[in-house]
Design a protein that fits this description.
It is found in: Cell membrane; Cytoplasm. By secondary structure, the chain is an alpha+beta fold. 51% of the residues lie in helices and 13% in strands. The chain is globular and about 55 Å long. The termini are far apart.
Length: 232
Amino acid sequence: MAIQGELQFEPYVLFEERNRIAEELHDRICPHLFGIACAVHSVEQEWSALSEEQKLEQLREIQAAAATASREMRATIYDLSAQEHGGSSWLRSMESLLTSLSKLNGVRIPFRGPDSDCRLSVHHRKALYRITAEAVGNAIRHGASSEVDVKLTILRSSVMLRISDNGKGFDACSRKPGRKDSGFGLRNMKLLASSLGGTLQIFSQPESGTRIVVRLPLAGRQEDQGQTLKNG
């Protein structure tokens, strides 16, 4: 009976592992590929107006983004988890993503984060990474923003993510989150937050930019003190 139970358990473990790898590929690779696609489209549209030096610089940025995507792929394949390489590796992934999107799209994306992410569970990290990638992508793609400010704060009993842009904004009250053309979508970002017992609020008006505030509880961490932000 024990052997039969093990045989039944093994396919489930393999299924869970395949799902985990698929999620890692989606979270860590797709945002970089999105940035590359946007940059190639931009260069194609502006090619005749660019100098040879500008063309070369854009191609170098695309090459750098492709190299970053390749590194993230290798990290996923070899399962370089945050626990194995110190508490800041996930933060480095966030910084790498935002730096890549910034260079590829000519958008300023300052990032302020805590000294360590060790208090965040794997589920918190995945949710925050996905929400950040989607929100920044929307600010660039739909909002035509020239600056997107990303701030991550770990408090005593919660983690807060604020993403603000100076784009064209939209009527947040009338936006339907389930639209098929919305990519990962506002609805799914809210579902990610609520799945961890948190909230996601969107503040936006036409021509006034957009601000997204995510709050996720950290269960059993009420006694911890808030962490000091880097860079202010």
